[in-house]
Amino acid sequence: MSKLSGNNSPPGSPRENPDQNSESNLLPKDDSALESVVRRLQDSMSVGKRHTFWETQPVGQFKDVGNTSLPEGPIEAPVPLSEVKQEPYNLPSAYEWTTCDMDSEEICNEVYSLLKNNYVEDEENMFRFNYSKEFLRWALRPPGYYRSWHIGVRAKTSKKLVAFITGIPARIRVRDEIVKMAEINFLCVHKKLRSKRLAPVMIKEVTRRVHLEDIWQAAYTAGVILPTPITTSQYWHRSLNPKKLIDVGFSRLGARMTMSRTIKLYKLSDSPATPGFRKMELRDVPAVTRLLRNYQHQFAVAPDFDENDVEHWLLPTESVVDSYVVDTPETHEITDFCSFYTLPSTILGNPNHSILKAAYSYYNVSTKTPLLQLMNDALIVAKQKDFDVFNALDVMHNDTFLKELKFGPGDGQLHYYLYNYRLRQALRPSEVSLVLL
C-alpha cells in the first residue's frame, strides 16, 4: 500500500508484526546495500527492541550483514520428515486452527471479509487492500498447491474466522540454484486481536506444514524491516484518473498546477501504438513461456516458470490479471508481452468514492518492442479498462521506464525476504525478477 507523496517512509501495515518493536523507518531510499541501515539499527537497539521472534529463525541476521565468509545457500539443513513436528502448534485456548478450502464459496467469503476489513492499510488509514474473491482463488490455487497451507484461526465459541496465513509452492531460482520454496502471503490478524501474539504461532505453523511436504525454504515480502531483506524496492505510481486520485487524497495537485493542466499532463493516446499488440490467448502460452524463461536468466532471483505456471499466472482472467502480446503482423511471431494484475483498495471515509481501482505491473518482456513503448501501451489499455492508477515496483528493468512514463515515487517500500536461505550481500531491486501478490 502506497500513495503518491513527497516522503519515502514505508507504509503502515495492520498485519500483526511478530516483532512489535521492529524499526520500520530506517532504510535510506538510496541504500540498497543495507550496510548503513543495519549499523543504525544495531546502534538504536536496546534490549527491548530486539527481533525476539526472527532472531530464533533461520534467516539472515543483521549482525551478519557484510560478512562475506558465510556460505550462500540454505542456513539449516533439512531434517528427516519423521522428525518434523506432527501436531499443530498450540494456540491460545480461545482459538482453534482451521484449513480454509478456497473452493468453498462460504469459506472464500469469510476469507474475503477478514482481509477486506483487516488487511494492509496505508499509514494514514485512507486506503485498505480489497482483494476480490476471484483474485484470492487465483493467487492461492496455482498448479500443485496444498490446501493444508491455507491456514485460518477461528474463535472456538463463535467459530468466526479471526486470522489467516497462506503458502503456495513455487520454484525460485537463486543465482544458479533452482530451489523449491513456499511463497508466504496474506498474514492477517483481526484488528481486535493484535495483542494476542498470534502471528508468530501462525508463522511457525505454516512453516511446519511446509516442512511436512519436504520444502525447507520460503520467500515473502513485508512493508517493515525484519532480519534481513535481500532487497528493498520502491513503489511508483502512474496517474490514470488524476482528478479522482486527488479527490480521494491518493495524490496532491502539484505546485503551480491546475486540475485541467494535470489532466492534460497524464492524458494518454486512445489506442496502443504497437502493431500486433493484442490480448494474450491460450495458444500463446508456449511462446510467452519461452520469452519469460529467456528473460529471467539475467536476474539473481527469479521464478522458474513452466508452461503450466504461465497458463495459470498470465492467461487473462477478468478482473484478476491482464496480459498482452505483440504478435508480429508479418510473421506472427510473439516478440514481447506485458501484464498487470487488478488489486483495488477500499477508500476509507470518503463520501464520493468507495473503491480505488489499481493495476499492478506484473511480468513484462521486451525483445523487439522498446520496453518504454510496450509499457505505454499497457497504460493505455489499463486506462481503457477504467483503472485509476497503475503501480509498479522498481524491480527488473522497470526503473528504465518509470520517470519517462510519468510515474512518481510513492511513500511505500517493499522489502523482500528469503527464509532459510542466505545471500552474502543484498541485491539491487534490478537484480530481482519476482513479484509476490
From TrEMBL:
<keyword id="KW-0012">Acyltransferase</keyword>
<dbReference type="GO" id="GO:0005737">
    <property type="term" value="C:cytoplasm"/>
</dbReference>
<feature type="domain" description="Glycylpeptide N-tetradecanoyltransferase C-terminal">
    <location>
        <begin position="247"/>
        <end position="427"/>
    </location>
</feature>
<keyword id="KW-0808">Transferase</keyword>
<dbReference type="Pfam" id="PF02799">
    <property type="entry name" value="NMT_C"/>
</dbReference>
<protein>
    <recommendedName>
        <fullName>Glycylpeptide N-tetradecanoyltransferase</fullName>
        <ecNumber>2.3.1.97</ecNumber>
    </recommendedName>
</protein>
<dbReference type="InterPro" id="IPR016181">
    <property type="entry name" value="Acyl_CoA_acyltransferase"/>
</dbReference>
<dbReference type="InterPro" id="IPR000903">
    <property type="entry name" value="NMT"/>
</dbReference>
<dbReference type="Pfam" id="PF01233">
    <property type="entry name" value="NMT"/>
</dbReference>
<dbReference type="InterPro" id="IPR022677">
    <property type="entry name" value="NMT_C"/>
</dbReference>
<dbReference type="GO" id="GO:0004379">
    <property type="term" value="F:glycylpeptide N-tetradecanoyltransferase activity"/>
</dbReference>
<dbReference type="InterPro" id="IPR022676">
    <property type="entry name" value="NMT_N"/>
</dbReference>
<feature type="domain" description="Glycylpeptide N-tetradecanoyltransferase N-terminal">
    <location>
        <begin position="74"/>
        <end position="232"/>
    </location>
</feature>
<comment type="similarity">
    <text>Belongs to the NMT family.</text>
</comment>
<feature type="region of interest" description="Disordered">
    <location>
        <begin position="1"/>
        <end position="33"/>
    </location>
</feature>
<feature type="compositionally biased region" description="Polar residues">
    <location>
        <begin position="1"/>
        <end position="10"/>
    </location>
</feature>
<dbReference type="InterPro" id="IPR022678">
    <property type="entry name" value="NMT_CS"/>
</dbReference>
<comment type="function">
    <text>Adds a myristoyl group to the N-terminal glycine residue of certain cellular proteins.</text>
</comment>
